[in-house]
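FW: tagging you since you asked about this chain on Friday. Here's the raw sequence from the shared folder, copied in full. Didn't touch anything.
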Amino acid sequence: MSKALELTIHLPDEAATVALAEDAAAALTVGDLITLSGGLGTGKTCFARALLRAVADDPSLEVPSPTFTLAQAYSGGRLPVTHFDFYRLSSPDELDEIGFDDALAGGAAIVEWPERAFGRMQKERLSIDLAMAGEGRRATISGSGPIHARFLRSRAVRGFLDRVDWRPATRRHLQGDASTRRYERVWSDHRQAVLMDWPRATAKTEPQAIYRAENVDAFLATGQALRRAGFSAPEIYAADSEAGLLLMEDFGTAGVIADGVPIEERYFAALDVLAAIHGQDRSDRLPLPDGSIYALPLLGFEALAAEANMLLDWYLPHISVTPATQAQRDSFDSVWRPLLEKVAASQKSWALLDFHSPNLFWLPQRGGLKRIGLIDFQDMHMAPIAYDVASLAQDARVTVPAELEQALVAHYVAARAGDPEFDRDAFVETYAILAVQRATRILGVFARLAAHGKPGYLRHIPRLREYLSRTLGQPVLSELALCYETHRLL
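HL: got it, structure written out here
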């Protein structure tokens, strides 16, 4: 491996070794290999133990040395990791016996004494050579491939935390959304925060992606606008916009569901937030902390049509194993066009676009509208007011029974009843169209995620199909329902 890729880090004490291991753990994903070299007593086992505890998010996890067993598997964390010790390896055949290749196929691996692996180590790996250095240790790190690039990014995160006085910081992976953004929960000196890692976007290749935010500026502008309007968006503790790093308030873990079921009081409270957002004129020009302006994009006909077409692009090939025909596309577009033109002409306001249970937190100590904590709003648009109502009342991640959906829509309508700008009949019709548009889009999104190695999203598809069946009976959608049935789009 090239000397140009080497990084040398001084580790004055065990805490520094643990921090380095956490940086490596934050970069780890399936197929990754980390090798640890160095003499006895240089800290290989300390590093491995800290990494495994970080992946498992369990500071008390027992991590015995695998010197005699050669391999020890850990499956309780965010991904399976196998800890190998090749010190007693006597032949290359033993690598097959202990399941080395299988471990990398289904998870990650960390290897002590890799020099005894008879040349079987893959080239794309992160290599860490530990040595004594005075009263501490020295880590020389080299590598190639994605794991090396991700580790360097993780070290940049550590540097950011140090610069903004979050040192020492304990880092743990935090389950995020389906985007390229990464999240961590961070602790330092009794402080707790969430870190967003969002490198600036490269060129977008899919037409739907051009309607989504590209960098942290969008999150900073929309979050500040929401807070100034009296809503609970996370306070920003520190930001490096150029690097794509934010440290923000942690809303905790209390959400709007319990045991996979909507908590009705909290869903109604979330709709009160939407009614308050929509009840006033909202500007599409949002100031950034540096005084510049972020222009809020418009979710108009073209964006709505691109979203709907994800069903043809991804879901139809998923269920039929063949791409959409031109006849299917022509019929689909001709039926959707007048519906989306009607929607695009309807009343608009701020729309967070992903206003559903994973992005809503319960903060009862704040009272009023601030009881609902909002995250994942960086894609906020000026959009038809029914968009976010449909997003919650037909929650893609949690089943909302038909009776509760009706009650939620009625609650929103009642909250807007005194607003002269609110047209109930137009809203109800637009809601039906957007409910189907969103379910149509999300079927495509989940099929795409499954095709990209995330099959877990497929478990939501029966719920979305039920929502479509529930809504396609509306008179305004009769031609669309016939199109879906004729071309077997579901």
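FW: Residues 424-451 form the longest helix (28 residues).
HL: agreed, and The radius of gyration is 26 Å.
FW: great, closing this out.
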